[in-house]
Write a structure and sequence with these properties.
globular, 13 helices, two-stranded antiparallel ribbon, mainly alpha, about 300 residues, about 75% helix
């Protein structure tokens, strides 16, 4: 019996289909190979430590002896620890004022430098953004010298007008405001650039329509500029809150958590318990508490943003 003869056109179509499939497969394999280094790094240095710390938070472990399973005892002890609540209050204090002051100041500078009538705007933008590219430790060391009670430049200048010296970093009432100012100064340039990009993307015809209606500058900002840059404002708000809850290097260099633990934060507490006291389980529990707080705040922001963020 003779074998069936496949029409020439059908065989050509099958070859084209197989070639397309093989081409898609090659593209997919190439894509996976390109992202594989990043995925390996993500799994080894982020995903695995996060999962491992969850198990460690349910144990007592000092890196030497065998871990002892304690369940949720670390979390119970954490809620009963007055030091944890003090660090949480300090973190909330720093986050609230640094975020508000940072957003208001960076937005003001962005609006000011976006005005074409302001001279030397290019130089001013570069100067304000400059602290962002410096390492946080070097910035904190410079400010530590500026704010020093005895040899600091700030107290020296205030002495000319018969003020001071003020214990900027050695008094519990002054230390946290000083740390907040340094943190805002360090981050303000980054937020300003984001606001500048948002301001330059606002359609000019909206301002022209507002001018025709006789709107004043403040009304134009509130009714035109602010709604149009709300997505960028939301981004700056979320990232600023997350970064403020993770503050560590500035407080460590400036005050090392002092005086009287007035600038100790949750991240500093995690570091102290993990790498100074070697209580890995307790430190992991504190880290997961911080993660839960940030997660709740971020989720709340996402819900609220649907009402005021322009889309």
């Amino acid at each position: 019996m003779a074998a069936p003869v496949i029409p020439y056109s059908r065989s050509i179509k099958r070859k084209e289909t197989s070639m397309k499939l093989s081409s898609k497969a090659r593209d997919a394999i190439a894509g996976y190979l390109f992202i594989m280094p990043n995925m390996i790094g993500f799994l080894l240095f982020l995903a695995f430590p996060v999962v491992a710390s969850l198990f460690i938070s349910a144990a007592e472990w000092n890196l030497i002896t065998e871990p002892i399973f304690v369940g949720i005892n670390n979390f119970i002890a954490l809620f009963q620890d007055s030091y944890f609540w003090q660090c949480l209050r300090n973190t909330a204090y720093f986050s609230l004022f640094s975020v508000l002051l940072g957003i208001v100041t960076s937005l003001f500078l962005a609006v000011l430098l976006n005005n074409p009538r302001v001279g030397f705007s290019g130089f001013l933008k570069s100067a304000i953004f400059l602290p962002v590219i410096f390492s946080t430790v070097s910035v904190a060391l410079i400010w530590q010298w500026i704010l020093d009670t005895h040899i600091g430049m700030l107290n020296h200048l205030l002495g000319y007008i018969r003020l001071g010296p003020f214990p900027w970093l050695t008094d519990p009432h002054w230390s946290m405001p000083s740390v907040i100012i340094v943190g805002v100064w360090r981050q303000i340039g980054y937020n300003m650039v984001i606001f500048l990009a948002a301001l330059q993307g606002v359609p000019q015809d909206l301002y022209e329509a507002a001018d025709i209606d006789g709107a004043r500058p403040l009304h134009k900002f509130w009714n035109v500029t602010w709604p149009m840059i709300s997505p960028s404002t939301f981004f700056v708000l979320v990232t600023s809150i997350i970064n403020s809850f993770q503050v560590f290097d500035i407080t460590t260099v400036l005050t090392n958590g002092g005086p009287a633990n007035s600038t100790n934060t949750i991240i500093m507490m995690v570091y102290q318990y993990a790498f100074q006291n070697f209580k890995m389980g307790y430190a992991s529990a504190a880290a997961y508490m911080l993660f839960a707080i940030i997660l709740v705040i971020t989720a709340f922001q996402n819900i609220v943003s649907k009402r005021w963020v322009h889309t």
